[in-house]
Write a structure and sequence with these properties.
55 residues; mainly alpha; Integrase_cat-core; 2 helices; Integrase catalytic domain-containing protein; elongated
């Protein structure tokens, strides 16, 4: 989040929510193999399901 002057608590919440969506769903993270966290997590669960012998 860059420099921003908030006027109301509602504005803080709205902008923070948008930032969290961008950070967790859109922004690629080098530490996760240049994937967005939600994509990385989905792939992780897919791998776990395919390795589960109780299917």
């Amino acid at each position: 989040m860059n420099f921003y002057i908030f006027r109301t608590l509602t504005e803080v919440r709205e902008i923070t929510d948008k930032w969290l969506v961008e950070y967790n769903e859109e922004r690629h993270h080098e530490s996760l193999g240049d994937l967005a966290p939600c994509v990385f997590l989905a792939q992780h669960y897919d791998r776990m399901d395919s390795n589960n012998c109780w299917h």
